[in-house]
Amino acid sequence: MDPPEKIQFGYSLEDISMDELMRRQGYAKAGRHSAVKTCTWLKNSMNGNGVCYKSSFYGVISHRCLQMTPTLLCNQECVFCWRPTEISVPAPDEWDSPEQIVSGCLQAQRKLITGFGGSPNALSKNYEEAKTPSNVAISLSGEPTFYPHLPELIREFEKNEMTTFVVTNGTRPDMLRRIFPTQLYMSLDATGEEMYEQICRPKSPMLWEKVMESLDVLKEKKKNGVRTAIRITVVRDYNYSVANAEQFSQLIRRADPDFVEVKSYMHVGFSRLRLARANMLEQEEIRNFANEIAWHAGYLYAGESESSRVVVLSKTGKTSPVK
């Protein structure tokens, strides 16, 4: 019998290289271990058909957002991850410099969007703007804090007049202390160690303690002018309940982030090998869960995007642009 991924995608993970898998998924390599990928919202924005929730929440221009990863390494195998966590990725023999990565990413992005230049559906103004990205989302695949020169990489992107969004799983607090992006996201998908083991499936022991330490680091970051956000991916049958809402709020109060994003698991990519569509939540369920968290944590509803099944909370009930 064929393995489930061959039935789902037409190929077996045992029979395909990571480079070929990335190519099929629309990634463009940027050096030896970094990669760039355009998302649906960039394409929609290029054609004038809507923008990502980061645009309405934080003022990020979707067609000028570069989505990249400096490494494919990760120390978790989250059950909800759309990435192929079933494939192990070795560390590179040598790390590219931040300058090499930024140059490679900008070149790769321009190559990926080339087709819009001749598309009758694309807005020419947006296409020209997209050639010069104004924001980088360092969150595409893998855990970015494994790249040893992440502080310098952030500064190199900023030299190109780009705001920087870093998304981390919070398992490397020492690196978080060293970085100062425009906005630092931390994923928080469990309320305790047992739930963490079930939903995030860590590859190493003691990582839950590191996640708790990173909550304290997030609170420290605000003193340095770094905007902070906690993102909760909600998965039915794993971390969705009224009791969990109250427990999440306790951890949120510890980190005191500027924003809290409560987002439904989305049944896409390789997560379809592990979860069912029924594990997704409807927008009304996400809204109710977010409001329950807000009530316990002392936050207010600040906005939502139904297409992304996400609700954002803040202390003031408002969001603010990064520039």
Please provide a written account of the structure.
There is one protein chain. This protein is α/β, with parallel strands linked by helices and about 325 residues long. Helix content is about 35%, strand content about 15%. It is built from twelve helices and ten strands. Strands 1-2-3-4-5-6-7-8-10-9 form a ten-stranded mixed β-sheet, with helices on one face. Helix 8 (about 175-180) links the parallel strand 5 and strand 6. Helix 5 crosses helix 7, helix 10 packs across helix 11 and helix 11 crosses helix 12 (about 285-295). The mean pLDDT is about 90.
Q: How do you describe this structure in short?
A:
This protein has 323 residues and is α/β, with parallel strands linked by helices. It has twelve helices and ten strands.
Keywords for this structure?
alpha/beta, 10-stranded mixed sheet, 12 helices, 10 strands, 15% strand
C-alpha Rg, in Å? Answer: 19 Å
Please tell me what the overall shape is: globular
Structural class: alpha/beta
Order of strands across the biggest sheet?
Answer: 1-2-3-4-5-6-7-8-10-9
* SSE pattern: HHEEHHEHHEHEHEHHEHEHEE
Overall mean confidence score, pLDDT? 92
